[in-house]
Each structure stands twice: as C-alpha cells, then as structure tokens.
Design a protein that fits this description.
This protein is of the alpha/beta class. The chain is 30% helix and 17% strand. The site of NADP nicotinamide-adenine-dinucleotide phosphate (NAP) has 29 residues, from α6.
Length: 309
C-alpha cells in the first residue's frame, strides 16, 4: 500500500510517523511531482498536479471539515473523497461561538476597556429573550454549537437545506424559510459549507433582515460574506458588531478595514483547528475499512456532494 501526504501548513513528519506506525507494510511519503501511483492521499489544499497524477486513488482524504478548497479543483473521476467529521473540531467550535456570543451579550469588550482605563462602571444586564441566536448550517458543527448554546438559555434558531429536528431549537429549512429565520435572529452564526449556493449569502440583503442591533459570527468561510456590506450595515447602525474568524484573503491583509473597525473582532482562522491525533485516528480507521472492502461515510455519502466547483 502506498500513502501520500500533502499539507504545506504543517510539519509532515508526525503525520508520516503515525501512518507508518498504523500501516507497517505501507510506503508513506510526502507527495512530490512525479510520485508513483498511490492508494491513498491525505491532503490540504493540494495542487492540481497531485490530483492529475493520481487518478487511481482508493481514497482522497481532506484534512479539514470544509471541502471547498478541494472541490474547486478537477478531481480524478471516481476517486472517493473523505473529509474530517468532527475529529475534535466540534467542541472547539462550540467553545469559540459560545465565547463570542457571551462576550457580546455580556459586553465584555466594553468592560475590559473600562478596566484598562481604571473605570468601575456597572452595566444594565440585557434581557436574554432579546438575544435570539440563529445558526446557519445544522451539520456536525452547527448542531454541536446549538447544543452548547442551549446551556445558556438563549432563544435558539437553526437554518439548513433540509428539515432538521433539534430539541429546543426553532428550525427552518430551505431558501423560502430564510427570511423568517433572519427576522427572528439577533446573533447570526454562520456554519454553512462554501458552495455556489452559499457564496456571498451574507450580504446587505440577508444581514439587513436581522433584528436591529444584529451581530454576526462568521466561522465558516470568508467568501460567504460580502465585506463592504457588513461595513455598510455597521455604519448605518443596523448591525452592532461582528466576530470574524475567516476571510476572503488569509492572512487578512494589513490594510483591510476590518482591522480598524472597533466593533469587529478579528481572529486568525483559529476557531476549530485540525487536531492531528483525532484526525489520524479517523483517517486510519477509514483506510482500514476501505482495505477490508467496507464503504465508510464519505463526501457524497452522508454529506451531500453538490458543491458545483
Ligand atoms: N473556521 C474554522 O476553523 C472551521 C473549521 C471547520 C469547519 N469550518 C467550516 O464549517 C463548515 C461546516 O462544517 P460541518 O462539518 O458542520 O458541515 P456539514 O456537516 O456538511 O453541515 C453543513 C450544513 O449546512 C447546510 N447547508 C448546506 N448547503 C446549504 C444551503 N444551500 N442552504 C441551507 N443550508 C445548507 C446543510 O444542510 P442539510 O443538513 O440540510 O444538508 C448542513 O446542515 C465547513 O464546510 C467549513 O467551511 C470552519
């Protein structure tokens, strides 16, 4: 068995070592142009050349939850694509989103500024019922985030493509239900995959339908959001602020206005990081299942594959 690895953002050695330990007979290597045909490849944002040169993979593993970077390329026909399902990311996402919601709701940014200035100033508590939180995308991450938020008793809403039933959450499905979902939401959390249908979805029109004083938490992809529309809605006062973890261009360029807007909190695509051990355990199990002739869940299996890139 031959396994290739390609992820320019990490040190490949611990990944290679773990794969060699799991599959003692396997030849495991970092992909190089012209590498011999492999059985499996673990990749993050691979070059087109890798895919063109590896038409007979039995499995292509995306070392992330979002497959948008991969599906923008020409995939070898018939090669099954697998993504990370949770693999330790869902709890991180729940932490991040709960922190952002509570930081805004409890005005911690203003309290911290008061503390910096040596000011003792108590604030009038907001009513929780005035802060409905709506999550777009009820997949592995969205559902886990809602479960965590439920502990804080915010009114909760959810929006997805197909109907979902989540206890304690007012769920909405489909494009026709989007206005109703937005009109009841004050804090909007985006956990959609990036697809032709969802690209630029967070624009003046949709964000303008949030309750007055709305707040955006974008933890999915930068290309969901029309940057200038967010800035315009902040300037008009319709939106109160945003926490953004993902951007159209990453790293966010130094001259981007988001850095200078005090109502926007910028974090460096850090809300849910790929965890090596958890990810490897999942990938090793799937390779083992494939080798044994089973068909583990893959993109296009339980996760719908209609990302027309
Ligand atoms: N910032 C980070 O560090 C980070 C880390 C990991 C992931 N992410 C992002 O988070 C995204 C979500 O991950 P996940 O694992 O939760 O994905 P997932 O399990 O595939 O769930 C996607 C959800 O989005 C819904 N959806 C898809 N297209 C839609 C549309 N056109 N209209 C309405 N709903 C739609 C799906 O609806 P149905 O259930 O009805 O099909 C599903 O509920 C990833 O794609 C990635 O971009 C970001």
């Amino acid at each position: 068995m031959r396994i290739l690895f390609h992820d320019l953002t990490v040190d490949p050695e611990p990944w290679l070592a773990a794969l060699r330990q799991a599959f003692a007979q396997a030849e495991v290597a970092v992909w190089q142009p012209g590498a011999p045909q492999a059985d499996y490849a673990l990749v993050w944002a691979p070059p087109q050349q890798l895919l063109d040169e590896q038409p007979r993979l039995k499995g292509l593993f995306n070392i992330a939850a979002g497959v948008d970077a991969l599906l923008r390329l020409r995939l070898p026909p018939g090669v099954p694509v697998f993504r990370l399902d949770d693999a330790g990311m869902a709890v991180q996402m729940a932490e991040y989103v709960c922190h952002a919601v509570i930081r805004h709701f409890r005005e911690f940014a203003a309290i911290e500024a008061d503390a910096q200035a040596g000011r003792w100033q108590q604030r009038t508590p907001h009513r929780r019922s005035d802060f409905p939180v709506g999550v777009m995308g009820l997949g592995v991450l969205g559902e886990r985030v809602l479960k965590a938020l439920a502990a804080f008793e915010f009114p909760l809403l959810g929006w997805s493509r197909t109907p979902h039933c989540i206890p304690g959450v007012r769920t909405h499905a489909g494009t026709e239900a989007l206005p109703g979902f937005l009109a009841q939401t004050r804090v909007l959390v985006n956990l959609l995959p990036l697809t032709p249908e969802t690209e630029n979805l967070l624009d003046r029109h949709t964000l303008g339908q949030l309750l007055p004083g709305g707040y955006l938490i974008n933890v999915a992809r930068g290309r969901h959001l029309v940057d200038e529309d967010l800035l315009a809605l902040l300037a008009s006062g319709h939106l109160a602020g945003a926490t953004l973890d993902v951007f159209r261009q990453e790293p966010l360029p130094a001259e981007h206005p988001f850095w200078r807007e005090p109502r926007i909190t910028v974090t460096p695509h850090t809300s849910a990081r790929t965890l090596r051990e958890e990810s490897l355990a999942q990938i090793v199990a799937k390779i083992g299942a494939l080798q044994a002739g089973a068909a583990p869940h893959r993109v296009g299996g339980h996760v719908r594959l209609d990302l027309g890139y």
